[in-house]
Amino acid sequence: MSDTKNLQMLLQCPMPKLDFDVITLGHGSGGILTNKLLDSGVFNLLSNDILDERHDGAFIEMNGKMAFSTDSFLISPIFFPGGNIGELAVNGTVNDLAMCGAIPKYLSLSFIIEEGLKVSEFWEILVSIKYACEKAGVQVVTGDTKVVEKGKGDKIFINTTGIGTIHTKANIRSKNIKTGDKIILSGNIASHGMAVMSVREGLEFDSEIKSDTTNLNYTIISLLEKFGNHIHLLTDPTRGGVATVLKETAQSTNLGIDIFQRNIPIEEQVANACELLGLDPLYVANEGLFISFIDASIADEFLKMLKKDNNGIHAKIIGSVVEEHPKQVILESAIGGKRVVSMLPGEQLPRIC
Amino acid sequence: MSDTKNLQMLLQCPMPKLDFDVITLGHGSGGILTNKLLDSGVFNLLSNDILDERHDGAFIEMNGKMAFSTDSFLISPIFFPGGNIGELAVNGTVNDLAMCGAIPKYLSLSFIIEEGLKVSEFWEILVSIKYACEKAGVQVVTGDTKVVEKGKGDKIFINTTGIGTIHTKANIRSKNIKTGDKIILSGNIASHGMAVMSVREGLEFDSEIKSDTTNLNYTIISLLEKFGNHIHLLTDPTRGGVATVLKETAQSTNLGIDIFQRNIPIEEQVANACELLGLDPLYVANEGLFISFIDASIADEFLKMLKKDNNGIHAKIIGSVVEEHPKQVILESAIGGKRVVSMLPGEQLPRIC
């Protein structure tokens, strides 16, 4: 279940001794069992002054412009190469806030558990939530735990909702995008989706394909510090992949987008896995990746700085914003042919995040 | 499915014409179908300037002390006498914020839909979300829609997370409770739980038992305006009922609580239904009810003011905080006997909210 990273975390966080092995309906009742779960020490893992008040809501103090974002995570399987649903839920909302130009600060955490979930699995998820929060510099300040009957859920769903303060230099809006803007992709595409698919399909490769789930907030903040409002839009190509996000942006701005396949970074074995399964990597979900629409004047310097960051080593300029073909994304293939890129049609990979 | 109240709302909000009748996995893909759902006009119902930006998160501005609260709603059935899961989800989080002494302002809204949900049912839920938001004076500013395979969810689960500004006169903390404080219950108990149970068990009564789901924020705000920090704690007895909330408060304050059964208001047919099903109404969930722990000096005036409010017509002083028997809640029965009140043991009514 756990990969090396998680095993190390678990060694540092031994599970409290409990007199129950699985979560039951009673743990969601609001009564004795809920309080027993709350008092069991399980949630102490996430302890902080605000959360520890255990009121109906958290008392926080914030000032000025903020971003507020929500996401529910239903990934299957809940443990996958490179991570699990817990850190995914933290990173996902942290990144959504970062894409708004915000410094993420507080998270709410809501569990919908299917009865029968092993407490040891729940613990492992909580441990990875703890570490993901520490890494991203955010605190879980309020939460909720509900339990559904067997067959009315699937192990565990997690909602995280976050608040962050907008960086003073940030002005992230799709309407700021203009003709000539460069489009920068921060790294290799399709890793998250193919990591999950390889487990589901039982595929084995020379080396394991791992999800790229990670927090992007510090990377974004340092770029905002330096380039401020030259950064016009930030967006993370999760569900629907790079293609869908680009198409949405073309549509909302009424501008055209040209991208070049040879510039789109992808790991060889991820590309091979996509080919094997007949999937176009442009539509496969990513978790630790972002696309920046920036003023052409800063493109080289932006790329240079991003490539020095752990989250941007493989960054590339993949294309630019053009006046021609408004609302259309045109991909120039490796051999020079051109094709129109649409959004993901139908459902490619259900339950990918 | 719909009761009179909902029918009136639906008449005022005709559903946009769509070329699909049910929600499918593709509507949660993030691709074409998700965008089709977003563009269908369905979500225009909740339109406001912030939501309409459709970025990864909402841009909001707030200052000072705030409350932040989250809740996932999994009630079954999703339509019940007196309401549905949509307004329940709005009112639930609005009330959690109000219990913190906050003026609720912004909500996030996250749907986990089981494939096959009828769009007409989804529409009805959205309509009641719209009206509940208007009634409570809050805006949905950011959202998320995910879809799970049939059998991995149950029609629809909804997470709402809310932010509100703490009222300047509010100082709501259980540590403010002291010996002599009066405990005021705002109305009849057990209506929500028994409304849901009567549907599940197919019970019929002379007149239908209806859920008490409603927003309490305006009631709370006017009480805070008048009585400020004489109000020590506000709490809503949802899951686990009145008994569980009182026991939790006794435990966290290390004080005792005495309550008097003859003062606890309950509708006759709700009491009868509880007896029929062998349920103690003290443990049955409420949605539009709150318990106030207040300074004894204001008790009469507080009760008088609350009873003039639509949400407090049946309010009663049900007991007081005592030095004796710390951490214990003692109920004096109608015939004078005394018993210790514990939290809800196990799970009485799964999926009640």
Automatic annotation (TrEMBL), chains A, B:
<feature type="domain" description="PurM-like N-terminal">
    <location>
        <begin position="56"/>
        <end position="166"/>
    </location>
</feature>
<dbReference type="Pfam" id="PF02769">
    <property type="entry name" value="AIRS_C"/>
</dbReference>
<dbReference type="InterPro" id="IPR016188">
    <property type="entry name" value="PurM-like_N"/>
</dbReference>
<feature type="domain" description="PurM-like C-terminal">
    <location>
        <begin position="178"/>
        <end position="329"/>
    </location>
</feature>
<dbReference type="InterPro" id="IPR036921">
    <property type="entry name" value="PurM-like_N_sf"/>
</dbReference>
<dbReference type="Pfam" id="PF00586">
    <property type="entry name" value="AIRS"/>
</dbReference>
<comment type="similarity">
    <text>Belongs to the HypE family.</text>
</comment>
<protein>
    <submittedName>
        <fullName>Hydrogenase expression/formation protein HypE</fullName>
    </submittedName>
</protein>
<dbReference type="InterPro" id="IPR036676">
    <property type="entry name" value="PurM-like_C_sf"/>
</dbReference>
<dbReference type="InterPro" id="IPR010918">
    <property type="entry name" value="PurM-like_C_dom"/>
</dbReference>
<dbReference type="InterPro" id="IPR011854">
    <property type="entry name" value="HypE"/>
</dbReference>
